[in-house]
Structures are given as C-alpha cells and as structure tokens.
Design goal:
about 400 residues; alpha/beta; Rossmann fold; about 35% helix; binds cytidine-5'-triphosphate
Length: about 400
C-alpha cells in the first residue's frame, strides 16, 4: 500500500544537536515513502552531519544560507515555505524552538518556518535538564498554541550519558506520526458538513432583542477542524465575534432562529454530516415593533413569546439515509437521561452533552468537557480540553459512526 506521504513535499529542518545523525535515516524513510524532501540545515547542524550526506539521500542540494556565496543565487524562503506540504524540524534544539516561538528569523530555517502555510512538526531533542527547563516548556506551549505539532522526545540514555527525557523520537515514529496526520487530514475530503453555531437574536424592536450567552466558539472550532480534514463546510452562524479563517468554510450569517432554519435547510439537502452546535433561542416575540418602543410612553410592557421552530428536529424529520445528524445538549440536571431523550426526539445519531455543573464547560469559555452519546447506546466521557481538541474528538466520534 502506498504511504500517505507519497507525492508530498516535505521540508526537513535539521538543527545542531547530536540527534542530527538520525535525520539521515529520517530523510531516507521520507524518500522511500515517495515524498520529495528539501533539507534546510542551520549553520550549527553542519557540525553534526554533512550537507553532502543529506543532499545524496534526498537528491536535492541542501540549503543553509540565504544565498550561495560564489554565485550569489538567492534562496527564497517564501517559495520554500509555500512549496512545503509538511514542515518538519528534527531534531529541534532548545535554541531553534525558542527562535520559532519568538520569531527570531536569523537563519534560513526559521525564516522559512515563518513563511510556510504547511502543517509544522517539531521533534525536540536535548539534554534532560534543558528539556525540563521552564523556558523550553514555555516555548513548546507557545508553539503548540501557534498550531505546531510536537512529536514528543522519548526517555532514555542521552549524549551526556545522563538518562531521562530528551532523546529525539525514532525516525520511524516520526514518519508514523506524519502518516497518521495526513490520513486524518484527508479523512473528510469530498464531504459536505453543515454546522450551526452561536446564539440567535430574536427581535423585539429595531434596537432590542432576546438572545443568550453563546459565544459560537465550539461551532467555529468544529468548522475549522472539519475543513482541516478536507471537508467543505457550511457554517450557519448567529451573531458572534468569532471568525472562520479556513478557505473551505463558507459562513452564512443569520440573526434569528427562522433565518437559521432557512439557511440550514438549504444546506442540508446535499450535506453528509450536520452538526447542530447553535444555542437557538427557544422563543421569539410574537410581534416585532417596527419603531423603537419609547420608555417614556410605556411604563410597563409585557412580551408574548412564541416557540421557535426546532432546527435539529426539522432536519431530523427530513433526513435521508446515510446523512449523519449530531446535536448538542446543555443540561443542568439529570444530564444523560435528558440528552438521550433529546437524541431520540430529534432523530439524531449522536448527541454531545455538556453539563453546566462542570467548571470550564459551556458558554464563553475556551474549554469544554463533554460526554458523547450515540443512538446505539454507547457513551464516552472526555476530560476537560480546549474547544479545538474537543472538536477533534467529536469529529473522530462522527467518523467512527459513519463506518
Ligand atoms: N436546537 C435547534 N433548534 C432549536 C432548539 C435546539 O436546532 N430551536 C438544537 C441545538 O442546536 C442542539 C439541540 O437542538 O443541538 C438541543 O438544544 P437544547 O437547547 O439543549 O434543547 P431544547 O430542545 O431547546 O430543549 P430544552 O431547552 O427544553 O432543554
């Protein structure tokens, strides 16, 4: 079977650590998997392994400097960054991690890193005390928050003869991590995913509305994650301050539950998966005033509210075989039973339960703690995680139920 790395363009950054000798094997494995590999070495990496070794293995001249000294040929870090499908730094020293975390672009490798749009991986390798140092932990946390994936160093004997965490992951494990990433990255390609997100605003008059505290963060995280897996995403969004940056996410902005229903129904016809993450207002004023209600003339008002349409249930009635419909449930008590009941009533395949009793779950936070219930009765409870990690868990659950 061909490797998911076949045909991919990989920039392999090598920095100055003793583990650089393992980069030769790594480059060899990439080439064997069918990838095209361009090596960039930092100046100190050349003290550990020769450019000749790397250019022989990859069939391409190694780049270290911004230009070739005798010809003046300029190496464009922008072109290299854009050429890459994957950008891997292995080994990544404490120094290079710090430069990447802070944008110190004083060599070709870090400059190319800042120019790339590819998914970036680092495989740290250093002595155990450097690995355990607060500054390394801080830089790795910054890189993770910037979207860099860290292939963890292993425990074992180090070049210093000390033993501990700091050995670069084995080349075969780095290849496996990249293969798994690519396989996941393309797992939703060709799929159309519909997501509702955010609150709805139900108008009282031209300046006032009934709304709720939903921030839209969970729905937007799901949209970005599905797009990263190759899906075409329609994100029907109530009024929020989040923005979707992935080019495969089309945002349809709506305000009220009625508008959200219309947009969701239109997109549902050819959707493969629909995820109802919006906090739809349950009621809307029965009449909307066309002029601002003046307090001076209206010492007391009462609003008559009418139930809004249930978007999830409406799609649940209209669904075709093979379409997957997922809902959310925010509960305060009797959580699992209420969520399971909602799943049945709305004809959902899966429901994601958050409990308002869990600290860090629910509205406005950057984290969430969910339990996933499937129509077949299986249930899985997850730890408190960032909303983008929760989005990955939810998509994994959806992909498992699609099989
Ligand atoms: N939902 C929807 N349209 C509505 C209300 C809810 O699509 N008018 C969806 C939500 O997006 C969510 C699921 O239904 O995926 C459950 O929402 P929730 O507000 O918990 O359920 P309700 O049906 O409103 O039940 P209740 O408020 O009584 O708990």
């Amino acid at each position: 079977m061909s490797s998911p790395l076949s045909g991919k363009h990989i920039v392999l950054g090598i920095t100055g650590g003793i583990a650089a000798y393992k980069s030769a094997l790594l480059a060899r494995l990439f080439v064997k998997a069918g990838a095209e590999v361009q090596v960039i070495m930092t100046p100190s990496a050349r003290e550990f392994i020769t450019p000749l070794t790397m250019s022989t293995l990859t069939g391409k001249p190694v780049i270290t400097e911004f230009f070739t000294a005798n010809t003046g040929e300029w190496h464009s870090h922008v072109d290299l960054g854009l050429w890459a499908d994957l950008f891997v730094v292995a080994p990544a020293t404490a120094c290079t991690l710090a430069k990447m975390a802070t944008g110190v672009a004083d060599n070709m490798l870090v400059t190319s890193y800042l120019s790339t749009r590819a998914d970036v991986f680092v495989a740290p390798a250093m002595d155990l005390d450097m690995m355990a140092h607060a500054s390394t932990a801080r830089n790795l946390a910054t890189l993770r928050a910037d979207g860099v994936r860290v292939i963890e160093a292993a425990e074992g004997e180090l070049a210093s003869h000390l033993s501990g965490k700091g050995r670069m992951a084995e080349p075969a494990d780095i290849v496996a991590a990249l293969e798994a990433h690519i396989a996941q990255a393309e797992s939703m390609s060709g799929k159309h995913v519909l997501i509702t997100a955010g609150p709805t605003y139900e108008r009282i008059d031209p300046v006032r509305f009934i709304g709720n505290y939903s921030s839209g963060k969970m729905g937007y995280a799901l949209a970005e994650a599905a797009a990263r897996r190759g899906a075409r995403v329609t994100l029907v969004s109530g009024p929020v301050s989040c923005v979707a940056s992935h080019p495969s996410v089309r945002v349809v902005h709506v305000e009220s539950a009625r508008e959200m229903l219309d947009a969701a129904q239109a997109a549902f016809t050819d959707a493969d998966v629909a995820i109802m993450a919006a906090a739809v207002a349950d009621y809307a004023p029965a009449t909307v005033e066309d002029k601002k209600v003046k307090r001076e003339h209206t010492p007391e008002i009462s609003l008559t509210l009418r139930a809004n349409p249930d978007i999830a249930a409406t799609l649940g009635e209209a669904r075709r075989p093979g379409q997957i419909l997922v809902g959310f449930a925010l509960e305060t008590d009797n959580e699992q039973a209420n969520a399971a009941d909602k799943m049945r009533r709305k004809h959902l395949d899966m429901i994601v339960l958050n409990s308002l009793r869990d600290a860090g779950a629910g509205f406005g936070t950057d984290t969430n703690k969910v339990t996933v219930l499937h129509a077949d009765g299986t249930t899985r409870a997850y730890e408190l995680k960032s909303k983008s990690e929760v989005a990955e868990d939810i998509l994994n659950e959806i992909e498992a139920c699609a099989h």
